[in-house]
C-alpha cells in the first residue's frame, strides 16, 4: 500500500486506527514439514500476535491440514494478515470465520484442582453446573475436562482458583462455519 509515493507498513496501519477486533481465521494448507513454521513466521515477522493456534490434518488422502488462528488487530491489520496468508505457497484457502458470522467455536481445557472437604465438594458441584467431566481423581485432587467457548472456560477456571486450582491445559480454539457448505 502506498501513500504519497511512500510504502506503508502494517505497523503504520496499527497506529492509524485504534479500534482492534478479534478474528478467527481458518487456513487450509498442505500438510508438509515447515508449513506451520512459515505461517507462524508471517505473524512474528510482522509483529502480529496469535491469541490461539490449533492445527491438525483434516484430509489424510489429500495431505491437507487446517490451521485455526485467533488474532487481534485493527481492521486494516486483519485484512493485511489475510492477504499475506493467502500469498503463501502452501496455503490453499483462507476464510475469516468472524466475517461470516456463522461460526461455531469451541475449546477444550483440562483443569487440575487440589482440595479436601468442603472445597472438594464445591469443586464437584461447580463442575457439574459447567458440565465438566471428571477425567482423573485421587483422594486429594481432580482433573476436570471442560469444553465450550473461551469465556465459559475462563469463568470455570476463575471459580476453581479459591478452591485449589493447580494447573490448566487448553487446546486453543477449534472453529467451523454453520450450515452445509464447507471451506
Query: Overall 3D geometry?
Result: elongated
CATH class membership of the largest domain: Alpha Beta
Quaternary: single chain
Q: CA-to-CA gap between the ends?
A: 28 Å
Number of helices: 6
The average pLDDT value, as a whole number, equals 90
**CATH architectural arrangement of the largest domain:** 2-Layer Sandwich
CATH superfamily of the largest domain: ACT domain
Main sheet specs: 5 strands, antiparallel
Proportion in β-strands = 35-45%
What fold name goes in the CATH topology slot of the largest domain?
Answer: Alpha-Beta Plaits
**Low-confidence segments, ≥5 residues, pLDDT <50?**
1-8
What's the alpha carbon Rg, rounded to whole Å? 20 Å
- The count of β-strands is 11
- SSE ordering: EEHEHEEHEHEHEEHEE
- Helix/sheet category: alpha+beta
Percent range of helical residues: 25-40%
Give the tally of structural domains. 2
How would you describe what is shown here?
With 183 residues, this protein is an alpha+beta fold. The chain folds into 2 domains: 2-100, 2-Layer Sandwich (Alpha-Beta Plaits); 103-176, Alpha-Beta Plaits. It is built from 6 helices and 11 strands. The strands form 3 sheets. Strands 7, 8, 9, 10 and 11 form a 5-stranded antiparallel β-sheet that branches. Mean pLDDT is 90; it is low at 1-8. Catalyzes the conversion of 2 pyruvate molecules into acetolactate in the first common step of the biosynthetic pathway of the branched-amino acids such as leucine, isoleucine, and valine. Pathway: Amino-acid biosynthesis; L-isoleucine biosynthesis; L-isoleucine from 2-oxobutanoate: step 1/4; Amino-acid biosynthesis; L-valine biosynthesis; L-valine from pyruvate: step 1/4. Its EC number is 2.2.1.6. One of its GO terms (cellular component) is cytosol.
Amino acid at each position: 500500500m502506498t501513500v504519497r509515493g511512500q510504502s506503508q507498513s502494517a505497523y503504520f496501519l496499527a497506529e492509524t486506527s485504534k479500534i482492534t477486533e478479534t478474528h478467527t481465521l481458518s487456513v487450509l494448507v498442505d500438510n508438509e514439514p515447515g508449513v506451520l513454521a512459515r505461517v507462524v513466521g508471517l505473524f512474528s515477522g510482522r509483529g502480529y500476535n496469535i491469541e490461539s493456534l490449533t492445527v491438525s490434518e483434516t484430509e489424510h488422502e489429500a495431505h491437507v491440514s487446517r490451521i485455526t488462528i485467533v488474532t487481534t488487530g485493527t481492521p486494516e491489520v486483519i485484512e493485511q494478515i489475510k492477504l499475506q496468508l493467502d500469498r503463501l505457497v502452501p496455503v490453499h484457502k483462507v476464510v475469516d470465520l468472524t466475517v461470516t458470522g456463522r461460526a461455531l467455536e469451541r475449546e477444550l481445557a483440562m483443569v487440575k484442582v487440589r482440595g479436601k472437604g468442603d472445597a472438594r465438594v464445591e469443586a464437584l458441584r461447580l463442575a457439574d453446573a459447567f458440565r465438566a467431566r471428571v477425567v482423573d481423581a485421587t483422594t486429594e485432587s481432580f482433573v476436570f475436562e471442560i469444553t465450550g467457548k473461551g469465556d465459559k472456560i475462563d469463568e470455570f477456571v476463575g471459580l476453581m482458583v479459591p478452591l485449589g486450582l493447580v494447573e490448566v491445559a487448553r487446546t486453543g480454539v477449534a472453529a467451523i462455519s454453520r450450515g452445509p457448505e464447507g471451506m
